[in-house]
Each structure stands twice: as C-alpha cells, then as structure tokens.
Amino acid sequence: MKLLVVDDSSTMRRIIKNTLSRLGYNDVLEGENGVEGWDQMDANADIKVLITDWNMPEMNGLELVKKVRADKRFVDIPIIMVTTEGGKAEVITALKAGVNNYIVKPFTPQVLKDKLEAVLGINEA
Question: 4-aspartylphosphate: which positions carry it (predicted)?
Fold first, then answer.
C-alpha cells in the first residue's frame, strides 16, 4: 500500500516513515510542502493514505487537503493531519476541510498506528 508523508521537517518525515516501516508500510513517498505533496498525489494516483503537516511553506496542509478533496480521483482517500495546532477550532477546521483523523505533535508511534488503523478500518481482534 502506497502512503504519502508531507511535512516541511525532514526529521518529522523520517520519524513518520520509520514508524510506518515498523508497522509494515514500506511504500512511502515524501513531500516537503503542499506543492510537492500535490505533485506526488498527481503523479501517483495509487496513493492510499495521505499524512500531512498543517504548517508548511508554499502550500500548507489545509490547502493541500482542500485541493486533494476537490480532485475526484482522491475524494475517498484517508487523510491524517499531523500538527502542533491542537486547539478545538483547528481540529474542526481540518475536519470540515476533509481530514479523516488528526494527530497533535509530539506523538508516539502507537498514536500513529491507532490513527492509521482507524482511517483504514483495521480493527485489532
């Protein structure tokens, strides 16, 4: 399964990719900002999950989410927003834009696992 991680922090991208790898997800693409993220989405219609930061240069995560949701190819793709913006208003804004789940930094690998399984509909027995 192909996933896309978009974050302007190379360290955060590496942390997320390493966590995903430990969970068995090894087909992970990266973007440094929303523009790169959109370019990856546009070139790889087989991406199954988008994990994006909110605060990034050029195109922020919220703008990326809106652009992805406006494209009929990606209307159903699960999107997880990963951000330091943990206020209730920010969460509501993200959900209204089409985000399926929300992770506030800093987070543990277990939180990422739980949120990813939730958006993919994976239930542990």
Answer: 53
